[in-house]
Each structure stands twice: as C-alpha cells, then as structure tokens.
Design goal:
Blueprint (H helix, E strand, L loop, with lengths): L1 H18 L4 H8 L9 H15 L2 H13 L10 H6 L5 H12 L15 H13 L8 H9 L3 H10 L5 H20 L1
Helix pairs in contact: 1-7, 2-3, 3-10, 7-8, 9-10
C-alpha cells in the first residue's frame, strides 16, 4: 500500500506539471524535497528535477510550457497517445481509452478542450486507480499496459530533446525513468 501511495504521488506530480505550467510555490516545493536514495537512477532524476525547479521562475516555465505544448499553431511536442501510436489525433487508441474510462466510471468533463489521451490525463487516471478504495474494474497494470506503456517513453524522449525544454528536460528525464520503473514493476 505504501508503494502504491508513492507511485500515486509521482503520477500526480507528472499530471500536474504536464497539464499546466507550475506556479512558483510548486517549483519551490519541488526544490525543497528531500531525496531518500540520491544514488539510485530515480534519485538522480529527482535531484535533476529538484535543481531545475530551484533555478526556475514561474514566468519562464509558463513560456516554456506554452512553447512546448501549445505554440502558435501547435507546440514542439504533441502530448497525445493517439498521435504517438498512429500519427494522428482522435484515433483508435483514444476510442479504446474512452471505453476503459467508462468502465472506471470516468467521463470527459465538458469544460475540457483536451482529449482524454493527453499524457497528463492518463497520469491522473493512474493516480486515481492507485488511490482508489476497493478493487477497480481495471487495475493499474492493465491501464498502464494498454494506455501509457505504448507511447510514454517516446513522448518523454521527445520532450527531453525539444529545443524549448529547460525545466521540462529534467521533468522528461524523471518521467522516462519513472515509466521504465513502472514497466518493470508491472511485469
């Protein structure tokens, strides 16, 4: 149970930072996190994220976020599972995701413009599954293997090498290492 809470916190952080630019208070909180195992691969990724958060200013990360994910017509990185799996938006992976979300009792909020296969939304669903009381209809391993594993590593690799990425380069490294650990844990 403690492991699930730890994982849920990591998914929550990824969801928050990939959904919107971080406020200065969040950057400061990340910079103040104590790292329990700084010599592990995950510890080094946390250390990089922590240092980047300590050096970042909210206005700069907002501009970086906009350049990376929004842009004038589109951002440098397209954060949607359908795009990574098919090359197009609103394709079969999104339809399959919507089916599983319906089984979980989740539906798209009408005030949201983003499709449900946005990386932030999928991380948030993993957080919800890991913190749910009882046994969810779809467990974390199934959701991860169906909807995150097929594309998240490539997304984080692209984010890490995007021209505008500064703070988000460190988030990408953290996300990539976390997703690799998740894939190993789910086997």
């Amino acid at each position: 149970m403690e492991q699930d809470a730890w994982r849920a916190q990591h998914y929550a952080l990824l969801a928050t930072l990939l959904a919107a630019p971080p406020a200065q208070s969040l950057l400061e909180n990340i910079a103040g996190v104590e790292i329990s195992d700084p010599d592990s691969e995950m510890g080094r990724a946390w250390q990089g994220l922590k240092q980047a958060a300590g050096a970042a200013q909210a206005a700069e990360t907002e501009q970086e976020f906009n350049d990376l994910f929004i842009g004038l017509s589109q951002g440098e990185v397209i954060p949607y599972g359908s795009f990574y799996q098919t090359g197009f938006l609103h394709e079969k992976p999104l339809a399959k995701l919507r089916q599983d979300l319906a089984l979980l009792g989740l539906e798209r909020q009408q005030d949201r413009k983003e499709p449900e296969d946005h990386i932030a939304a999928e991380c948030d669903v993993m957080r919800m599954i890991l913190t749910a009381q009882g046994t969810p209809v779809i467990d974390a391993a199934t959701f991860f293997s169906r909807h995150i594993s097929p594309w998240a590593n490539q997304f984080f690799a692209d984010l890490a090498t995007a021209d505008s990425a500064v703070f988000y380069r460190h988030l990408a490294n953290f996300g990539r290492i976390f997703m690799q650990a998740e894939a190993q844990a789910m086997k």
